[in-house]
Amino acid sequence: PQPPPPPPPIVTYDFETSSTAGLTNGGGDPPYAFTRTSGGTDSSGTGPSSGFGGSGSYFFFAETSSPRSSGDLFKMTFDSACTAGSVVTTVDLKYHMYGATMGELRIVDAANQTRWSRSGDQGDSWQSVSVDIYSASFSIEYVRGSDYTGDAAFDQVVVYCGHAPLPSPPMP
């Protein structure tokens, strides 16, 4: 028989409104907050020129200009997407990593395990990734590279909830 279709997304964060229900952005000094904007970032040679979907679309990015310095941590935690008894199973998102001094963008689960990461210049275009999480919550983190040309961005975060897969039976 065919496997059941995947569940519909529970929540999509497109960042078009300023509401960030279910999100904790920053929370310290560090970790620093991501900046919400539409259009491009303030620095030339880095960041997207618009959010995913084109002109006027909002997105979040790590503003890496001074006073930020090498190794600074930016963090946004998604903490209330799923109902009791279920977990975040998968996260889809668009990311943009353009600049000569890109750091590391990563998705980290509630146990602080990195489930996905990218480092370095990925070109001046939005990329897509789908990450299996199986965790109560997750964070998007970015570690700043060596200079200001490292404005990493993300948009269109889609969270799927469900139940963790059952462990495989041991091999006989």
Question: Would you write up a description of this structure?
Answer:
By secondary structure, this protein is an all-beta fold. Helix content is 0%, strand content 39%. It contains no helices and 11 strands.
Q: Topology, pairings included?
A:
Layout: E1 11-13, E2 23-25, E3 35-38, E4 58-61, E5 73-78, E6 87-96, E7 104-109, E8 114-119, E9 127-135, E10 138-143, E11 153-162
Antiparallel strand pairs: 1-11, 2-5, 3-4, 4-11, 5-10, 6-9, 6-11, 7-8, 7-10
Top keywords for this entry?
172 residues, mainly beta, 0% helix, globular
Q: Summarize the main sheet.
A: 6 strands, antiparallel
Mean pLDDT: 89
Q: What gross morphology would you assign?
A: globular
Strand runs, count: 11
- The Rg value, from CA coordinates, equals 17 Å
The ordered H/E elements are: EEEEEEEEEEE
Helix content: under 10%
By DSSP (H or I, 4+ residues per run), the number of helices equals 0
N- to C-terminal distance: 25 Å
Low-confidence stretches: none
Strand content: 35-45%
Name the structural class: mainly beta
